[in-house]
Amino acid sequence: MFHVVDDSEILREMLVEMIESHGSTAIPFASALEYLEYVRSDQFKPPSAVITDVHMPHMSGYEMMEQVLAINPSIQFAVLSGEPNIPSRYKDKACLFLEKPCAGHQIQKMIHIFKHCESNAPPSPGIDDTQFCDRGIFDLSSSCSCPKQSCG
């Protein structure tokens, strides 16, 4: 299961549809504040990963990541951004960075990578985080910075 946090209804619905078309489930959230409220609730179920936009009203995706990680440090994030300037204090908070707009094959590979992390199983043939992570665009190291040691 994936959680999608994006203030754009069109992008949020598109991401949910792409994730579900690859056999996973996704729960959408319209804002960082809405997602934080869910994380703090009794209904919270940890996802395989949270896919978040960066620029949202009231709280950025980066600020949300910090607060979520303070509550549950094992949550993994994929950041979607159209801007290559990631503040240095946030560079190690997410496992994957994707440049907007992202393609369906990137979402599919992201799903495979997070499922690999979750199960500690070998990745599917041909699936490699360096094949699609846009970390170079964002001036980050080329390897996935997944917080789980087995995935890094």
Report on the architecture of this protein.
By secondary structure, the chain is of the alpha/beta class. It has one domain: Rossmann fold (3-Layer(aba) Sandwich), CATH 3.40.50.2300. 34% of the residues lie in helices and 14% in strands. It contains 5 helices and 5 strands, in the order E-H-E-H-E-H-E-E-H-H. The chain has helices spanning 9-21, 32-39, 61-71, 104-119, 129-132, and strands at 2-5, 26-29, 49-53, 77-81, 96-99. A 5-stranded parallel β-sheet has the order 2-1-3-4-5. Helix 2 (32-39) packs parallel to helix 3 (61-71). 36% of the residues are buried.
Brief account:
The chain is of the alpha/beta class and 152 residues long.
CATH class term = Alpha Beta
In DSSP terms, counting alpha (H) and pi (I) runs of 4 or more, how many helices? 5
- Total number of strands: 5
- β-strand percent reads 5-15%
Radius of gyration: 14 Å
User: Can you write the helix and strand succession as a string?
Assistant: EHEHEHEEHH
CATH topology: Rossmann fold
Q: Separation of termini?
A: 21 Å
> What low-confidence regions span 5 or more consecutive residues with pLDDT below 50?
123-145, 147-152
The CATH superfamily turns out to be Response regulator
Proportion of residues in helical segments: 25-40%
CATH architecture: 3-Layer(aba) Sandwich
Number of domains: 1
Provide the spatial order of strands within the biggest beta sheet. 2-1-3-4-5
The structural class is alpha/beta
Query: Largest sheet at a glance?
Result: 5 strands, parallel
Mean pLDDT: 79
- Principal-axis shape equals globular
